[in-house]
Amino acid sequence: MANKNNITELIFTGLFQDPEVQKVCFVLFLPVYLATLLGNSLIVVAVSISKTLHSPMYFFLSSLSLVEICYSSTIVPKFITDLLVKVKTISLKGCLAQIFFSHFLGVAEILLLVVMAYDRYVAICKPLHYMNIMSRQVCHMLVGGSWLGGLIHSIIQIIITIPLPFCGPNVIDHYFCDLQPLFKLACTDTFMEGVVVMANSGLISIISLFILVSSYAIILISLRKHSAEGRRKALSTCASHITVVILFFGPATFLYLRPSSSFTEDKLVAVFYTVITPMLNPIIYTLRNAEVKNAMKKLWGKRNPETE
Fold first, then answer.
1. Transmembrane ranges (predicted)?
2. Contact assessment for residue 256 and residue 179, using Cβ atoms and an 8 Å cutoff
């Protein structure tokens, strides 16, 4: 089947057709991407050098920020540069690579969010055993498992996609490569491939969401036994994580757990989770966490000694 391919290049329709609107989008989205890189990089550096941020919670936060940097960089730079050109092209191999890394990093992020929920569960419900349960070795295994889970998921997706024949047309109705828009270009019936892909993505999302909801339900029930100050502190750390989970799973649920209807809707929702959400995560965690804010202030002070 692979020999039937006579398409080596794909053309994106993009987010909007109006050149003036595209220029406005460029002016808006470039600073957002730069802020994403800066904010998440600051968290990674702050956690790695700060003596006050060496707990498992911050190790997982640093890992999440690293995934956000990689995930955003898989899609956004190409999207931003395409806003300035009339014809937006990508090679078929480049398209498959973008699909592979976006799914790899996307699922790694989902699994990291589950790991972070487990960390909060252990910290709040089993505080006396926390350091024994969440040892350095266990933390590294959990993060490594998140990356491995994303890799296995992405390999399955790409193995399903590579054999498909693409013999025209070559216009993909999106601003980046994703499976459902690409499947519409295959010159064969892709119903079964679509079912397998949806089952693969949907199963991971549903199981992860169930674990997340269950973890926080148990946490909220156990908080009734804590003091008012203990509840306030626990809820403060959990609130940031819950906010990030909602921001991630909301758009993902809209896109992957329903039949595709309007690609215009899909593209607008996709902008939120590919461009906006990676920038919001470091802001959410920083604004609600005094230790992270203090570590970043110290880090910024070292970079700018003349301001002290």
1. 26-50, 57-76, 96-118, 138-160, 202-223, 235-256, 268-287
2. no
